[in-house]
Design brief:
Elements (H helix, E strand, L loop, with lengths): L1 H16 L4 E8 L10 E6 L2 E6 L5 E6 L3 E9 L2 E10 L2 E3 L2 E2 L2 H7 L10 E4 L2 E4 L12 H6 L4 E4 L2 E4 L4 E6 L2 E2 L4 H9 L6 E7 L12 E8 L6 E12 L3 E13 L2 E14 L2 E7 L3 E25 L4 E12 L2 E12 L4 E27 L6 E24 L8 E25 L4 E21 L6 E2 L5 E19 L4 E18 L4 E21 L2 E12 L3 H4 L3 E5 L2 E4 L7 E12 L2 E21 L2 E28 L2 E16 L8 E15 L6 E10 L2 E3 L2 E3 L2 E12 L4 E8 L6 E8 L2 E8 L4 E13 L10 H5 L3
Parallel strand pairs: 1-7, 1-8, 13-16, 34-37
Antiparallel strand pairs: 1-4, 2-3, 2-5, 5-6, 9-10, 10-15, 11-12, 13-14, 15-16, 17-18, 17-47, 18-19, 19-21, 20-21, 20-46, 21-22, 21-23, 22-24, 23-24, 24-25, 25-26, 26-27, 27-28, 27-29, 29-30, 30-31, 31-32, 32-35, 33-34, 35-36, 36-37, 37-38, 38-39, 39-40, 40-43, 41-42, 42-45, 43-44, 44-47, 45-46
């Protein structure tokens, strides 16, 4: 810990040492000495260009690389209001006098349309503001048409990755899946500047998870403006589900505030079938359930510009989630001749209370106008969960109505997670390289408890042998350095290295068992871009990632869901590592990527079964290596004003090599995945649009599971009214009820099949109203204004 503190001090000293050189400071004024606020001042010389935004009083400051002659220009509200040559010598002080009345006649505004898809050194940029399909949509819908992004059953992902992190303006959004979707739907597409898809994250980002990052970049808030969105939706599947939300954005002078509040209430009805093919009999289960949702989530973000160089802010994300599940599990045990041997009927009732709170404090200080800056983040995350799971299992013989065996139980469980973290990031462009470096500390404490009560005889009796308390602590220290270099007008490269040290400790109260694990790992990153032409870029990148077990995966105790099913953690579970390599090519609206990845020491949930015992145990296990190769093609067709089509095709090969040769076999598969999302403009005013989407995936594998093929169609129509402030949309999802999958796994030569349908056929009616207005700012006339004008 002492070394980390010293490291932080060194980093801060390096940041301070980075500030040097020539500068210009001054004030923007009219000939009558009136202040010109919030204008952009730029100085340019050959390939050098630096800029700054003046404050509310017109003051500006810029750091320059050297003395010399520069061209200074001033923009106000998109208009060029001043342009002249200026000589800089050391620390130059100069006020700029601008006659706003004269510039109004001479102004020419030039609008440059950005490319729809741009390839940067470490990410792909989708400029949402140039997409017809994204018009009048929200952030969640915009992600659905973003190249390289896939959305399946409300799970957001990146093609070729098993996980994804969502960021907004480079700040991680820590919300559950349902709350995250509600939050994304509160962001209007009109407020989004671009969406960045980072397949292989650079060293600046944490190495956790073989995941990519989706970073939603918002447009700069309108100055002195209040805007908001009120939305609601009604979804009908087997049961109904309602969503309601409100978002408010406020910007005035130095204060920027964004907020949202969302509520979801209703239920869905997933359906599952599970088959075990034993040598002498078959075990067939049907799971019917109704899952109730009752979620309240919110976000509040406040930023304050202390000066024109330093901004501080605070962000809160929170949610209260009270889901409930009523379900029945019916198991049919049949002989090899398909004769019913017995039946097990298990009704269950689960009630959960969850609360999560994420608090972030951040500050960004621009050290100069050359791009040097230092940012600091301090985060606290709190998660509390209490669950009450009741079930009873009755075993029946054929033609009998009285159970031959009966068991009922009540599982009470709780989980309390606290995560503290802090990080510092520094960017310091040098003459020969753009350098960034930083450090992070995180501390995790997880307390979980399970109390098992046997209620078979009508009384509640605590079973200490099936109850447990588990405490898990994890501390991680990390530092990174990354350098970006323009080798020439065509070549650009970026190298990075992240060092992470992790210490874990798990303690089981019932088993009196303590498990510790300490490891230090290095995670390199490499990027190389070649600019073939203005519209054509070739890129190569590599990185290494780590996947750590969840806290529940490490808890060695058993958690029973039925008489014959339980889950059990593995305290000896180790993290696994993934090496990723990608070659990409982009040309206008085309994007192609050839990729490969290799997983070592992989772990997954394995359902252990035996022909001599009907009990099914689900235990996470390190047992496989996996190799993946693939090619991704993405194309946006937008040549016509009435039709935009976003298309994606992914062909990949996966092979899982099992280390448990007597338990799990090696599996492999070639897979084809295609999707097409289309938007059609139906009238000349562009207020009526139709949407049609299609997704197909051939048979595939996921670690030790084989997955069947599936496909589905979505369609919708959207109407804009009241100058496009009111949006009304009607959507039909999974129209033909074909979004169903079967997962197959073979353990100890016993075939397991899990058929899964998640109630995806549904119709949704949604309404959204956007409002906004400018805020008047009154300038107070001071008592000595006239006297001040007499000062030379």
């Amino acid at each position: 810990m002492k070394n980390i503190v010293i490291l932080f001090k060194i980093i801060i000293l390096l940041a301070g040492a980075a500030v040097s050189g020539q500068s210009i400071t001054g004030k923007l004024l009219t000939p009558h000495q009136e202040e010109i606020s919030y204008a952009e001042v730029s100085l340019s010389q050959d390939k050098i260009k630096v800029s700054a935004i003046g404050d509310e009083h017109g003051n500006f400051f810029m750091q320059l690389p050297h003395n010399g002659d520069y061209k200074i220009s001033v923009l106000k509200d998109g208009r060029m209001i001043y342009e002249k040559n200026i000589s800089i010598l050391n620390q130059t002080k100069k006020d700029i006098i601008i006659d706003l009345k004269e510039t109004k006649i001479q102004d020419v505004v030039i609008s440059v349309r950005k490319k729809l898809i741009e390839r940067k050194i470490d990410r792909l940029v989708f400029n949402v503001e140039n997409s017809v399909s994204a018009t009048g949509a929200d952030a969640y819908e915009a992600l659905g048409i973003t190249p390289g992004v896939k959305i399946l059953n409300d799970q957001i992902g990146i093609v070729g990755k098993n996980k994804v992190s969502i960021m907004v303006d480079d700040r991680l959004i820590q919300l559950s899946d349902a709350d995250l979707i509600s939050f994304l739907k509160s962001i209007r597409s009109e407020d989004i500047k671009s969406i960045e898809i980072i397949n292989n994250p650079p060293a600046k980002y944490e190495s956790e998870g073989n995941s990519g990052i989706i970073n939603i970049k918002l447009k700069k808030a309108k100055q002195n403006y209040l805007s908001g969105t009120i939305k609601s939706s009604y979804t009908q599947a087997k049961y109904s589900l309602g969503n309601y939300g409100l978002g408010i954005n406020y910007q005035k002078k130095k204060v920027t505030l964004t907020s949202s509040l969302d509520y979801e209430n209703g239920s869905i009805a997933p359906y599952q079938e599970y088959t075990l093919h034993y040598p002498n009999y078959t075990w067939f289960e049907i799971n019917n359930s109704r899952n109730f949702r009752n979620n309240l989530s919110g976000r509040l973000s406040l930023d304050y510009a202390l000066t024109n160089k330093t901004t501080i802010g605070i962000q809160y994300l929170g949610g209260i989630n009270n889901p409930m599940r009523k379900g029945t599990n019916t198991s049919y045990i049949r002989s090899s001749k398909n004769v019913l041997d017995s039946l097990v009927y298990t009704p269950s009732y689960l009630k959960v209370n969850k609360k999560n709170h994420a608090l972030n404090f951040h500050s960004i200080t621009k050290l100069d106008t050359l791009g040097r800056q230092i940012s600091f983040d301090l985060d606290y995350f709190k998660f509390d969960s209490n669950a009450d799971n009741k079930f009873s299992s009755s075993s029946f013989l054929p033609n009998e109505s009285t159970p031959s065996q009966f068991l009922s139980a009540n599982n009470l469980s709780s989980q309390d997670i606290d995560i503290y973290s802090s990080k510092i990031d520094i960017e310091t462009p040098l003459k020969w390289i753009n350098l960034s470096f930083g450090a992070k500390l995180s501390f995790i404490n997880n307390d979980s408890k399970v109390f098992y009560y046997d209620t078979s005889n009508g009384n509640s009796s605590l079973d200490l042998g099936k109850s447990n308390g588990f405490n898990y602590k994890e501390n991680t220290q990390s530092v990174y350095i990354s350098g970006n270099k323009k080798l020439s007008s065509k070549w650009e490269t970026q190298l990075g290295l992240r060092w992470e040290s992790t210490q874990t400790k798990g303690f089981s109260e019932t088993l009196h068992q303590t498990n510790k694990n300490n490891y230090i790992k290095l995670f390199p990153t490499f990027y190389l871009n070649y600019l073939i032409s203005e519209n054509s870029v070739l890129g190569l990148n590599y990185n290494r990632r780590i996947d750590r077990p969840t806290y529940g995966d490490l808890n060695p105790f058993r958690f029973y869901t039925t008489k014959y099913n339980y889950g059990e953690g593995n305290p000896f579970l180790q993290p696994y590592f993934t090496d990723n390599l990608e070659l990409s090519y982009s040309y206008k609206n085309y994007y192609t990527a050839v990729y490969t990845s290799y997983i070592t020491n992989g772990f997954d949930q394995v359902t252990y079964v035996s022909s001599s015992n009907p009990v099914q145990a689900v235990i996470p296990t390190n047992f496989f290596k996996q190799a993946n190769w693939g090619i991704l093609e993405s194309y946006v067709l937008n040549q016509w004003s009435w039709w935009e089509s976003n298309n994606q095709a992914n062909i990949f090969y996966s092979k899982t090599i099992s280390d448990l040769t007597n338990t799990l076999n090696d599996i492999e598969a070639w897979t084809v995945s295609v999707s097409s999302n289309n938007s059609f403009v139906l009238n000349s005013s562009k207020t009526l649009r139709a949407e049609l989407g299609f997704t197909y995936q051939s048979p595939s594998i996921a670690n030790s599971y084989k997955i069947s093929s599936f496909y589905y169609f979505n369609a919708g129509i959207k109407l804009s009214l009241l100058e496009k402030k009111l949006q009304i949309a009607l959507n039909a999802m999974d129209i033909f009820k074909t979004n169903k999958m079967t997962f197959t796994q073979i353990v100890n030569n016993i075939k397991q099949e899990n058929y899964d349908y998640r109630d995806t056929q549904k119709i949704r009616l949604s309404l959204s109203w956007n409002f906004g207005k400018s805020l008047k700012i009154q300038s107070r006339k001071l008592s000595n204004d006239e006297e001040k004008k007499r000062v030379n």
